[in-house]
């Protein structure tokens, strides 16, 4: 991804042409990835508290988003699952919600609980001009950790959304009995192919835009601003990764029929039988769902993180305790 840029100059010459002062933030070309993260570096790193707050904030944000936007996700899944010119059903748009929330809660909690400490550790390990790579790497690590919960949840959800099962417990029981435990991880490779880049890119775009906005505004952002940035990051990433999402959906719903031999065969078959445009099925609902979802997720996430931070026991005077993202 080409580096996004923001004009920043941390030095200003004196009238006599002497020393450079590192106090003012004026405009000059410098990459987003080089913006300072020292406020985070100066604060003592409390691993357990960071994990705990990430788990609470991530779980809360994930459940709110899933509940609010589940019907859009169902429509998207049915569009992608329809072969050729098949019609989709408009009933039961909340089918599988309860079972999905049971998986989304721990998956979102695990993702953010891993992402936050990984991000802070990587920001300290990477040079300051490579903070974007720290965010990319932390997003991929968080996505990998959450995938062990996300994939079975996604398999059950997509099959319920396409009318294969009527309840989550029934879906789990029948999938395991017919396909074995590995049936719950159908399409795992395609899921990682879609979600690891998605998580890495979305969180990188979000974090870098947020850093740049804070520097330009010279203040902390409010919930509405975090939500707008989250919506943009989600919609853009969602559009780019739609073909990967289509392949993931087809592999997850095939069950024991084994229509496709793998990711490559699935891509070739879809293009051969339905044309290249089939790889963009559901892009409208997906962009809408992830854009709105990104707005809600990041708005709730930052709001929850802030409330949890305000409840921390203070070990130093407020003016000595720099604010941490």
Automatic annotation (TrEMBL):
Q: Which domain of life is it from?
A: Eukaryota
Q: What is this protein called?
A: S-adenosylmethionine transporter
**Membrane-spanning ranges:** 51-72, 93-112, 132-151
Its lineage reads:
Eukaryota, Viridiplantae, Streptophyta, Embryophyta, Tracheophyta
GO CC, one annotated term:
chloroplast membrane
Q: Where in the cell is it found?
A: Membrane; Plastid, Chloroplast membrane
Q: What Pfam families is this protein classified in?
A: Mito_carr
Keyword Nuclease belongs to the record: no
Biological process, per Gene Ontology:
transmembrane transport
Species whose genome carries this gene: Linum trigynum
């Amino acid at each position: 991804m080409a580096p996004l840029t923001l004009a920043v100059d941390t030095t200003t010459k004196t009238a006599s042409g002497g020393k450079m002062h590192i106090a003012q933030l004026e405009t000059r070309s410098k990459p987003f990835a080089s913006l300072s993260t020292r406020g985070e570096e100066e604060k003592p790193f409390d691993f357990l508290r960071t994990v705990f707050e990430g788990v609470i904030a991530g779980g809360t944000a994930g459940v709110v988003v899933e509940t609010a936007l589940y019907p859009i996700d169902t429509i998207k899944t049915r569009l992608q699952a329809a072969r050729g010119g098949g019609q989709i059903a408009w009933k039961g748009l909340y089918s599988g919600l309860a079972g999905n929330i049971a998986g989304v809660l721990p998956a979102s909690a695990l993702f953010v609980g891993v992402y936050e400490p990984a991000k802070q550790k990587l920001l300290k390990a990477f040079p300051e001009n490579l903070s974007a790579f720290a965010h990319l790497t932390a997003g991929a690590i968080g996505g990998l950790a959450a995938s062990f919960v996300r994939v079975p949840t996604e398999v059950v959800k997509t099959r319920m959304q396409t009318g294969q099962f009527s309840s989550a417990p029934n879906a789990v029981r029948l999938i395991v009995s017919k396909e074995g435990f590995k049936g719950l991880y159908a399409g795992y490779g395609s899921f990682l192919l879609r979600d690891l880049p998605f998580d890495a890119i979305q969180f990188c775009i979000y974090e870098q835009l947020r850093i740049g906005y804070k520097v330009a505004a010279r203040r902390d952002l409010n919930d509405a601003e975090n939500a707008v940035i989250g919506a943009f990051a989600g919609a853009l990433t969602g559009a780019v990764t739609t073909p990967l999402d289509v392949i993931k959906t087809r592999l997850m719903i095939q069950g024991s029929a084994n229509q496709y031999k793998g990711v490559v065969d699935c891509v070739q078959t879809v293009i051969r039988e339905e044309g290249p445009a089939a790889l963009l099925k559901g892009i409208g609902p997906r962009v809408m769902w992830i854009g709105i979802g990104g707005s809600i997720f990041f708005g709730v996430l930052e709001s929850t993180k802030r409330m949890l931070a305000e409840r921390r026991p203070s070990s130093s005077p407020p003016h000595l305790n720099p604010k941490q993202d």
